[in-house]
Design goal:
4 helices; TMEM272; membrane; globular; 66% helix; transmembrane; transmembrane helix; mainly alpha
Length: 187
């Protein structure tokens, strides 16, 4: 007998999984391109020499983080799972800070001069790639924040309209039936 339960995959779940696979594949390619562009143009952005380094580290950290996430889901419980989870959390925290550092390097020099030898020179492909990736991450972050706020608002409104209380009254506890009288009968 198979120890894992057989999960039926419906059309919506199949679309969701396919979309996640495609998005993961695209993100892998973007991060590989970030490493390649940063490495090949390492000294070609004198207006802000940290931009190629930003791309290299960003790509490396994200690829390592994605790899650990895949390993974590395949290993299941145990010490390896805990270590992968801890390493992934540290990488995500570092990536969060690194993204803010990259933002402070990319946006203040907009637009650089793409003419070789100019004082505000930066390689056009490298700078535009860093600018677009940073902007897309900011847009995705803002979109997730707005969607999260909308979901919270809808949930609160739904609970309010249905009369459900988010905080129980003094006569109830979580999971109990609301009876409006003390549990002992007489007070």
């Amino acid at each position: 007998m198979d120890p894992s339960p057989h999960v039926e995959v419906g059309p919506q779940r199949a679309v969701r999984i396919s979309s996640l696979v495609v998005l993961n594949f695209i993100w892998w390619m973007v991060m590989i391109a970030a490493i390649g562009l940063g490495a090949t143009h390492l000294g070609r952005c004198p207006v802000q020499p940290n931009i190629p380094i930003y791309l290299i580290v960003l790509g490396t950290v994200h690829l390592l983080s994605l790899s650990l996430t895949y390993c974590q889901t395949s290993w299941g419980d145990g010490m390896a799972y805990i270590m992968c989870s801890a390493c992934t959390a540290v990488l995500h925290l570092f990536s969060f800070g690194w993204f803010f550092a990259g933002t402070t390097w990319v946006y203040p020099v907009y637009p650089p001069d793409y003419t070789l030898g100019a004082s505000r020179y930066c390689d056009k492909t490298t700078y535009q790639f860093a600018f677009v990736v940073t902007t897309l991450v900011w847009v995705a972050t803002a979109l997730m924040f707005v969607c999260g706020c909308c979901f919270a608002l809808v949930t609160c409104c739904k609970n309010f309209i249905l009369g459900n209380r988010l905080i129980p009254n003094r006569y109830t506890f979580y999971g109990a039936i609301d009876s409006h009288e003390p549990a002992g009968g007489d007070v």
